[in-house]
Amino acid sequence: MTFCAISTLSAKEILVIATNDDYPPFILKNQKHSFLPDLFDEIGDQMGVTFEFRYLPWQRCAQAVQNHEAWGAIPYTRNEERDKIYDFSDPIYFSDAKFFAYDPKGEAPQISYRNLSDLDGWTIGGIQGYYYVPMFTKAGLDVDYVHSEEQNIKRLQLGRIDLTPLPSPIGWYLINKLFPPDVAKNFYTLEKPLLSEASLHVMASKNYPNNANLLVRFNAALAEIKNNGTFAELINRHGLVLSF
């Protein structure tokens, strides 16, 4: 009985995190170690919890949070609509977001814009449920939605879409993974970013049990591993750019 009591007291709280199983370079499919799982291992040690990852399609990630099947989903960008429904952690990473394009001859056409509505007439590949959906709808753009970034990069190269928005690290990672150098060199990005510095967060339900306390503990643990050098070490290990 004493042993069972000690085991119960020492058992760590389990928090479920929903995310996609292939979001390179942040999460690498079929690889034990990638940036976000390693980061959450460190945060969990600081918090005294165990994070359990559930790999789902992106739209199911948000539903899992709403249904309390998961405490949080990662990595999510804030927008006005999401702020009405969800709470967000402090930023876990910063990345820009740019429009990627492809020219088979390597001659980048002069696509430019000041406002999103200036891109009317170009076919944009997007992913349903992403932060930019309300932005594109408001601008009246022609957007063809699919389920993954990899699909959009492939469609870009085949000429089925003209542009697709992606965080720069993800876009170039996928391009160099999917295509040989002589094809990869013909991709380019528009000069004006969609977002110059997008913060990525844990997105949690506002009415998840004890959510306010969990976010305070999470943010404190994240701050500690940034202060003690662990965050920078993880960034270097996984070939990312330090920005916080």
Give structural notes.
Helix 2 crosses helix 9. Strands 1, 2, 3, 4, 5, 8, 9 and 10 form an eight-stranded mixed β-sheet that branches. A two-stranded parallel ribbon has the order 6-7. Strand 6 (123-127), helix 5 (133-139) and strand 7 (142-146) form a beta-alpha-beta unit. The chain has helices at residues 2-10, 35-47, 58-66, 80-85, 133-139, 149-158, 168-178, 181-184, 211-227, 230-237; strands at 13-19, 49-55, 72-76, 86-88, 93-102, 123-127, 142-146, 164-166, 187-189, 195-205. Helix content is 39%, strand content 24%. The model is unreliable at 1-10 (pLDDT under 50). The N and C termini lie far apart (48 Å). With 244 residues, it is α/β, with parallel strands linked by helices.
